[in-house]
Amino acid sequence: MDRFKILLLPSVSLAFGILLLMLITFFLNSWPIFEREGLAIYTSNIWRASEIPEEEFYGILAAIYGTVYTSLIAILIATPISIGLAVFVVDIAPRKIRELIVISTDIMAGLPTILYGIWGIFVLAPILSNFMVFLHDSFPFIPLFSYRNPTGYSFLTAGILLAIMVTPFATALIREAYAAIPPIYREGAHSLALTRYEATKLLLGYIKPAILAGILLAFGRAVGETVAVSLVIGNSFNIHPSLFAPGYTISSLIANQFGNAFAYSYMPHALFAAGLALFFIGLAVNLAGVLVLRRWRYA
Amino acid sequence: MLREIKNGVFLFYLLASSVLILLPLAHILFSVSANGLPVLMSRGMEFLTSTLPGPNKPGGGIFPAIFGTFTMVFLSSLIGIPLAILAGVFIAEYPKSIISNLARPLMLIMLEFPTILVGLFVMVVVVIPMGTFSAIAGAIALAIIMLPYVTTYTEQAMRTVPESYKEGAYALGLKKARVVFAITMRLARKGILTGMLIGMAKVAGETAPLIFTAGIAWRSIGGINEPTGAIPLWIYYLVQQPYANYHEMAWGAAFILMLIFLAVFLPVRLMMVRS
């Protein structure tokens, strides 16, 4: 090893060190709640804060449910749009429009998330609440619409906002992969006189892993997003099947409750345990995305 | 016939996707401008130079927020950029070493990592020992978030420098460090600068990592060891207040934040298109 390499080593190692130190920090700080409640912190839906430590009990199942629910809504909306957009940009759009779309989606990817938040709370939620009231009044027997008196602050609002926020990331990945398909496949498809639809269907088959990676990374982003979600999800402990019900996500729970958590003995530990769950969900999803992408690129 | 109908529906779907994604962006930019610009116009310079008014009082401005954002972006750059560039140099110069092979996916994971967790982490290791929220704690959280952006851009920029340039320098008998700093990095400076600016634009808009690190300040500015405001933090708290004048201020602040972001991001992005 040369000296230059050794001199540079600390800067790279720092990134690994930070991740490791983070993991240790979260483990140590959530330990007291595991000792007290075991896994009930993840499997029960109770949030009992009390001045008397003996009476405290915390379970974040509602927040885990909300995180998965909103992120699923987000990728259900984002996936078809990001595939359609990728194909449109690569195959159809003239150069000027292509540049406009690519730059616009890049702006969306980088735009401060609080701008999505202020738009979500003052613009999107009021618009959606009208639809929700209408759908609930017309079809109250459908479980998805079953929540009474929807206010606009709900799983659906958070899911739609997240869909808008994660689509740029998914589409960029899919677009890159779609554009990189060797021209010979494209020519082959066209020489068989396939329609645009048939040719695209065939070509998309080649980049399935990239599409999967795009969806996984989008899911990972949706899971970790905090402020925009916490402004529109309604912040209440709720495990309800309806799209229109208010709820919590893990990250919005932390953002919302941590400020006053230190008034209680166990609440900070409960929130660190919530953070630990977020840490592992995020890590698992992102790692899966990165691995799928890597295997596909090497193949 | 069926084939053609399917094809027609498909083309409509492609077009609809593009419209569906551009519509929210246009609506967000429009809403922020339509609600924020009037606030700025009616208050003029006062909006940039004064502090938070009382609930339902006229006037006031977001100076502590602007000050806090600039302070923390500056400090986080000071901490994060040198480290990130050195890490990027390592990965680019020793691409086959085990560390680099692990560091590349690590950077991707850090890019995607929930930023609220970074804030919580920094709270434990900086805020609690210091006993107070502070600008420096916020800046450390932002530096961690900035790291993967600058590292990735630096690495990619350095890898575009042709081998022959480096070989030429080695042939002259230069040491590795000289070659990297005098030849490779100089040739890759545009890409590295791009990474720095993108990283700074990104952290300037971050909210979640600051909630439990920077604290908040509404009516004063202080040293780097004292709680501070930031534009995104202000917006986050102001929209949750029940007062109409605070909502107006939030829109105004959002407009300023949007301008700062676009002023950094657009030129950088357009420069990337050209090169």
Automatic annotation (TrEMBL), chain A:
Q: Record's Pfam families?
A: BPD_transp_1
GO terms for MF: phosphate transmembrane transporter activity
Name the InterPro entries for this protein.
Answer: MetI-like (IPR000515), MetI-like_sf (IPR035906), Phosphate_PstC (IPR011864), Phosphate_Transport_Permease (IPR051124)
Transmembrane intervals:
7-28, 57-90, 111-133, 153-174, 210-233, 270-293
GO biological process terms held by the UniProt record: phosphate ion transport
Record function comment: Part of the binding-protein-dependent transport system for phosphate; probably responsible for the translocation of the substrate across the membrane.
Record protein name field: Phosphate transport system permease protein
Q: Which organism is it from?
A: Geoglobus ahangari
Kindly list the organism's lineage: Archaea, Methanobacteriati, Methanobacteriota, Archaeoglobi, Archaeoglobales
UniProtKB/TrEMBL annotation, chain B:
The organism of origin for this protein: Geoglobus ahangari
- Where is it chiefly localized? membrane
A GO BP annotation: phosphate ion transmembrane transport
Query: Which PANTHER family does the entry link to?
Result: PHOSPHATE TRANSPORT SYSTEM PERMEASE PROTEIN PSTA
Q: Name one GO cellular component term.
A: plasma membrane
| Source organism superkingdom | Archaea
Q: Organism classification, top ranks?
A: Archaea, Methanobacteriati, Methanobacteriota, Archaeoglobi, Archaeoglobales
Q: Which family does it belong to?
A: Belongs to the binding-protein-dependent transport system permease family. CysTW subfamily.
UniProt entry keywords in alphabetical sequence: Cell membrane, Membrane, Phosphate transport, Transmembrane, Transmembrane helix, Transport
Topology of this chain in the membrane: Multi-pass membrane protein
Membrane in keyword set = yes
User: How is this protein named in the record?
Assistant: Phosphate transport system permease protein PstA
Where is the chain membrane-spanning? 12-41, 61-94, 106-127, 133-150, 249-268
